[in-house]
Amino acid sequence: MESGKIAAVGSEPVGNDDIGLERRLELFRLQVEIRDCEKRAYDLFLQNLIKGTSHLSLGQEAVAAGFGVAMRKGDKSFCTYRGHAHTLARGASMEGMLGELMLRDIGLMRGKGGSMHLTSVEHDVLGSYAIIGAHLPIACGSAWRAQYLGEKDVSVCFFGDGATNIGAFHEALNFAAIWKLPVVFVCENNLYMEYTPISEVTAVKHPAADRAASYGLESIVIDGNDADEVYRTAYAALAKARDGGGPSIIECLTYRHSGHSRADPAKYRPPGELEEWLKRDPLIIYRQRLKEFGVADDAISAIESESKRKVEAATAACKAAPQAPVDLLTADVYADGGWAWRN
Q1: pTM of model > 0.85
Q2: Is residue 135 part of a domain?
Q3: Does 118 reside within a domain?
Q4: How many Cα atoms occupy the beta-carbon half-sphere of 233 within 13 Å?
Q5: Pairing outcome for strands 248-253 and 220-223
Q6: pLDDT tens digits, residue range 290-327?
Q7: Own/partner long-range contacts of 328-334 (Cβ < 8 Å, ≥24 apart)
Q8: Which of 54, 74, 142, 343 has a Cα-to-Cα distance from 278 of 20 to 30 A?
């Protein structure tokens, strides 16, 4: 059975549902697949099949899924080093993502980019960026290109709460507001900038939204663990940008279930905080939401089973794939595809 093609079995949805059953199933499918794929990435790391470190977004799946469903083909994604979820949400394959982390030739970039630089031009994912805040001005450049050429794609830039205290954040917002660029800035506020609570080093309560007024933008704060709320907010911001209404900045309140990276046990979190946020797990919320709209348990289970099947198949394909060739190191260093310096 193809992923995304699973029929819901049960009574008709109740109430006025502006999202619709098909989109709801897609939102749930994406969240489940992102969760399962990242959990498998962690397992592969423990097996020493993924080298170095990587940054998981377990607990933050609703942001990626909500935007992934709301965005059109051609809209551009700019991600942080925690970009696995957003890359998968735009349609990149599990094989491509896991293969890249495992440095296999099957990877999205043939193993050359690794965890923190996932890119898939085919899926309009124009990079994951390891330098905090570096991609915000780049997203403005992409949006300016669309505006200049009269095209209708929108650039969406995802970043963490820590980036809001970086100069590039303020420069990008000012530039976008002045030129009314078709760009949407999305802050995934998971409360911590690496190991430091964002509240301890920021003068305002909402590090992104409370700065919006400085650039003439609306302050938007939403529940980043509710995929429906993310989808609705994303859809409105994308439509506004596409119609020439300029940029938006959206602060999504969420929480990462694990540490900042693989090396972080997250012992700095106060007792009970994680347990409280686990009650607001986006998958738990959305599984219940589907039931409220008449989706039967067996339809929900079918989506979950299909996700696990895909993860197993992707894992097997990546393990069987060859390592990235050594000569890839010197490929595409310069625009001519080679590495030789030319004066």
Answers
A1: yes
A2: yes
A3: yes
A4: 28
A5: parallel
A6: 999 999 999 999 999 999 999 999 999 999 999 999 99
A7: 328/110, 328/111, 328/112, 329/112, 331/112
A8: 54
